[in-house]
Design a protein that fits this description.
292 residues, alpha/beta, two-stranded antiparallel sheet, 11 strands, 14% strand, globular
Length: 292
């Protein structure tokens, strides 16, 4: 097993994590054997940051992680997310924003992952898209949610608190709670969260973007198709996706990535992003790209 971390490391609360981790959501589509092969290969290649949630297949992904990697290495950091639940309906997710529901989701994580403590739990707010938007009784004050997560942390059931899909004002509001990471939609061509990123950097909070390569499901365009990206990829002999991911790592040293895949070959491609060196010209060209 390698001791090197893909892309180097970044601080996530009390942990040092690889800057290129693994988002496990797509493992829901695999059986235990195939999912386990991907997970074990990720760890072999130095990944020590896994992103999951109990609502990924109603604990299916968590069970895959447990089957493949339990008992866990001391330096493996499993990060989960709360704020939604899996339902049997055409739309497979429903919001679960109430404090009691957040606690239920943490308990699901603990049971399905076989943990005494979830190292980091992200609160996924639903004030805006992409995804479900809170209405009715699911509109819950952020302070009420933070109070429950602080209680869970004080009880030792979670190690640290993160946030997802939040505004600048919400991040400022939450800072006194001791936030260790933020997950927002962000990419080369979608820098609407740049202010949050800079606020995270100032406060030594890890910035972990989702949809860094767009999303077909949410109809978010991919920066990998941008002409400037294609030109630089050809010049440097790298894939367009690797150029986009490498730019995120180069843009700010508080950033980390959690690309997901069901394929070992694709996993290895994603981790090769760490080998892409963007020269000054490439960085300047990419920095100048604006949202189409």
């Amino acid at each position: 097993m390698t001791s090197e971390r893909p892309g180097g490391t970044v601080t996530l609360g009390q942990y040092e994590i690889a800057r290129i981790g693994y988002g496990a959501m797509q493992l829901e589509k695999l059986d235990t054997t195939a999912a386990g092969a991907v997970l074990r290969r990720a760890v072999e290649l130095g990944v020590n940051h896994l992103d999951t949630a109990s609502f990924y297949g109603h604990t299916t992904v968590n069970q895959h992680i447990r089957a493949a990697l339990h008992p866990y290495a001391d330096d493996l950091v499993i990060v989960s997310k709360v704020g939604a639940r899996r339902v049997d309906a055409p739309v497979r997710l429903a919001l679960a924003q109430h404090p009691s529901q957040l606690r239920e989701q943490v308990q699901l994580d603990l049971t399905s992952l076989g943990l005494d403590q979830v190292p980091v739990v992200n609160l996924r707010r639903a004030d805006q898209g992409p995804g479900l938007i809170a209405e009715g009784d699911q509109v819950v004050p952020l302070d009420d949610q933070l109070a429950e997560l602080i209680a869970l942390r004080n009880e030792g059931l979670i190690g640290a608190i993160g946030l997802s899909n939040i505004s600048t004002e919400q991040l400022k509001q939450a800072l006194p709670a001791g936030i260790v990471c933020v997950q927002n939609a962000y990419s080369l061509i979608n820098r609407s969260s740049e202010e949050q990123l800079q606020l995270c950097a100032t406060n030594h909070i890890a910035w972990i973007p989702y949809f860094p390569l767009g999303s077909a499901f949410d109809q978010i365009p991919s920066p990998a198709e941008h002409p400037v990206v294609l030109q630089i990829a050809a010049r440097l002999g790298a894939t367009p996706a690797a150029i986009c991911l490498a730019w995120i790592l180069a843009h700010n040293n508080h950033t980390a990535l959690i690309p997901g895949t069901r394929s070992i070959a694709h996993l290895e491609d994603n981790l090769r992003t760490a080998d892409v060196e963007l020269d000054e010209d490439a960085l300047a060209e990419l920095d100048a790209v604006v949202s189409a």
